[in-house]
Design a protein that fits this description.
Layout lengths: L1 H8 L7 E5 L5 H8 L3 E6 L2 H11 L4 E2 L11 E6 L11 H11 E12 L4 E4 L2 E4 L3 H8 L9 E6 L8 E6 L1
Parallel strand pairs: 1-2, 1-4, 2-3, 4-5
Antiparallel strand pairs: 5-9, 6-7, 8-9
């Protein structure tokens, strides 16, 4: 994850405020805190939020992307492998809410499994994306200075998936 962290954090002011949106285990929250950033984190799963709170040693909120109502509040938003659990029709609304929560000049990092369509795997919902689909989803946001996309391979030894990453 260090390469992803470096690219994202290079855009965030020292000590800046990061929203870890859909924080899962709290791995990234803990890393950002260890590097001197302030972090607000949430997950939709109460069980994961409790585990993340213990791991990151800070409170983790329980909420959905539809409950992100802050305006121009965060220096950066980290949505690593979290938006992909939304239904396709929910993704544009979530992106709009995250974009509104971002300060001017702020940056959002997000990632999706590379592919097309929606599916269920091991009881979990996934919405995959291509760069073209992502660009279409981002078009209504307005004031987007740049979108940098790149593909990475899953680093877990038992996985063969590719990931679409983006800094917006």
């Amino acid at each position: 994850m260090s390469e992803l962290y470096e690219g994202f954090l290079a855009t965030i002011p020292a000590g800046g405020l990061i929203l870890d949106a859909g924080c899962g285990s709290g791995r990234d929250t803990k890393e950002f805190i260890s590097r001197g950033y302030r972090v607000v984190a949430f997950d939709a799963s109460p069980e994961l939020a409790a585990l993340a709170s213990d791991f990151a040693e800070q409170p983790i909120g329980v909420r959905n992307f539809s409950e992100v109502n802050e305006q121009s509040f965060y220096d950066g938003i980290w949505a690593c492998a979290s938006l992909l659990h939304l239904r396709e029709y929910e993704v544009p609304v979530a992106l709009e809410r995250l974009w509104s929560a971002l300060k001017p000049e702020g940056v959002i990092y997000l990632s999706f499994k590379l592919g097309v369509g929606e599916r269920r795997h091991n009881g979990r919902h996934f919405t995959d994306a291509t760069e073209t689909q992502l660009q279409t989803r981002l078009a209504p946001l307005g004031d987007v200075e740049s979108v940098e996309c790149w593909i990475t391979k899953d680093q877990r030894p038992d996985r063969q998936e590719n990931w679409l990453n983006a800094l917006i």
